[in-house]
Write a structure and sequence with these properties.
Elements (H helix, E strand, L loop, with lengths): L7 H5 L5 H32 L3 E2 L3 H8 L1 H6 L13 E6 L4 E4 L3 H12 L9 E7 L3 E7 L4 E2 L2 H6 L3 H43 L13 H68 L5 H35 L9 E4 H16 L6 E5 L5 E4 L1 H18 L6 E10 L2 E10 L6 H6 L20 H11 L3 E6 L6 E8 L13
Helix pairs in contact: 2-7, 7-8, 8-9, 10-11, 11-13
Length: 496
């Protein structure tokens, strides 16, 4: 797998680790810090050598040079002291005469002199005994000063300025190295990001490029293996789907053939039954046979109707295989007309099993906008569930009437059976797809789709499905609630 990586063999010989790369930058960083320190030392030496700054002990040097003047000069105010150096002249009794020591420090300075302990005071002190019973106390600091007095006023001391400059240079070089490191890493990680992006888009036809970083290449090789595995999995899935579609297409074709035969034979049989009806109608004693032929004719009509429905379902299956959907049309149908259709469907589903059927229809005014095909399937599923589990001698009861819920009028199509009814669990989940309750209402061949399909169809048309146990029959009860409009709604499906 690693050999398939683009540039894999070329980069393998010069791969670097993240630790090695990081250490390289750390070494470079430390070298720059050392160079900065050396530069600061050289700067101090250059400034001192060129006479631009005084050394830190310059006040002591100055006092050593001017010691005689400090002792004998009549008025020290005429003497120019170094910048940052202050002095005070006292009498031997501690009386302040003159000087530059600030007023708040004058008394403390003299107290320190008398106690021969000035360690508690800030700075350094030197005492000169003068003529005329005077004492001169000089206060100074060990720090570098600029020769130019203007620079002393506007700039920090050289000892402070140099660390500031060192800090700025340190931060700048840290930012530069960090940006350079981030830029290099980003350039390498872009390849990793590109691979993950293509995999997320299911674009698996590409070669994975490597970098010169060992850890990143390990991730890229893992992604390469994942890409290949995903590609194989998707190909297998596509092949399975294609095979499944092929089998379904073949199945649809195979079902179509016997349906055509059944339909043709039913049509021929209908013609024969019509001829026999004409012959028997001419005979007075053929009423019994005529009635039997009428029943056969009704069965043939149902066969033809359901054959047409199955053909429509097969057409939909072909569209689904092509990833297409048939246009769903809704129709505005009068409530009395819809009642008749639901009643006829109930009669057609119960007659083959000779199940007793009791139908109650109450007048409902208005129209219902529905997809008749979907409604027929939903009603058929609810009826089929009741027929499957009812007592064969008692049959099923159907009631179609109008009811109101939350201020909305509904046409309620209710079917009740005489079976064992729904358990509490089934009442909660009976309309869920693939739910199968206990064996009392679901045999092993039951797939748990009928009521779920009915619920979905009715809800799509603005109604709902109600499942409960009937108080009258003691069995299960399913009700389709369909919204009723008092006036016809203009739409493409027309008004029935």
């Amino acid at each position: 797998m690693e050999g398939r990586l683009k540039n894999g063999g070329k980069n393998r010989g010069r791969e670097k680790t993240l630790m090695g790369m990081f250490l390289k930058y750390m070494v470079l960083f430390c070298v720059n810090v050392v160079l900065i320190c050396i530069g600061a030392y050289l700067m101090i030496a250059i400034l001192g050598g060129t006479g631009m700054v005084y050394p830190a002990n310059y006040p002591e040097q100055w006092m050593n040079v001017h010691e005689t003047e400090l002792r004998e000069r009549e008025d020290l105010r005429e003497l120019e002291f170094p910048y940052g150096t202050n002095y005070g002249v006292y009498t031997r009794n501690g009386e302040w005469l003159y000087g530059t020591i600030v007023e708040k420090d004058r008394e403390a300075t003299w107290d320190g002199y008398e106690r021969q302990n000035m360690s508690e005071l800030s700075g350094y002190y030197r005492v000169f005994e003068r003529e005329k019973e005077e004492i001169c106390i000089v206060k100074y600091y060990f720090q570098m000063r600029y020769v130019n007095q203007i620079l002393n006023r506007i700039l920090p001391t050289p000892e402070l300025l140099i660390p500031i400059l060192m800090t700025i240079i340190f931060l700048v070089q840290a930012v530069v190295l960090a940006r350079h490191f981030a830029k290099n890493m980003k350039k390498r990680l872009e390849k990793l990001q590109g691979v993950t992006q293509k995999i997320s888009e299911n674009d698996l036809e590409f070669a994975v490029e490597t970098t010169d970083i060992k850890e990143i290449n390990q991730v890229l090789r893992s992604l390469e293996r994942m890409k290949d595995a995903l590609q194989k999995s998707l190909k297998k899935q596509w092949d399975m789907e294609e095979e499944q579609n092929r089998q379904v297409r073949a199945l649809v074709h195979d079902i179509k053939t016997p349906l055509t035969i059944i339909k043709g034979n039913a049509e021929l049989s209908a013609e024969d039954v019509g001829e026999w009806k004409e012959i028997l109608s001419e005979k007075t004693d053929g009423s019994g046979k005529l009635s039997a032929l009428q029943g056969v004719e009704n069965c043939q009509k149902q066969i033809l109707e359901h054959t047409v429905e199955i053909e429509a379902y097969l057409d939909k299956m072909r569209l689904i295989l092509k990833h297409q959907t048939a246009a769903e049309t809704e129709t505005c149908i009068a409530c009395d007309r819809l009642q008749e259709k639901l009643k006829v469907q109930a009669e057609q589903m119960t007659s083959p099993q000779d199940l007793p059927l009791m139908v109650q229809c109450h007048s409902v005014q208005g129209v219902v906008q529905v997809n008749l095909e979907q409604l027929k399937r939903a009603w058929g599923n609810v009826l089929g569930n009741a027929i499957e589990y009812t007592d064969s001698e008692q049959g099923v009861d159907v009631c179609i009437n109008e009811a109101e819920k939350d201020g909305v009028s509904y046409l309620c199509a209710k079917v009740s059976d005489y079976g064992p009814g729904f358990s509490s669990e089934e009442l909660n989940y009976a309309a869920e797809e693939f739910y199968r309750g206990d064996e009392s209402r679901h045999d092993r061949s039951h797939q748990g789709l009928g009521l779920a399909i009915a619920k979905r169809f009715v809800e799509a048309q603005g109604g709902f499905l109600e499942i409960r146990n009937s108080e009258q029959t003691g069995g299960g009860e399913g009700t389709l609630w369909l919204k009723v409009a008092k006036h016809a709604i203009k739409q493409s499906g027309g008004l029935f």
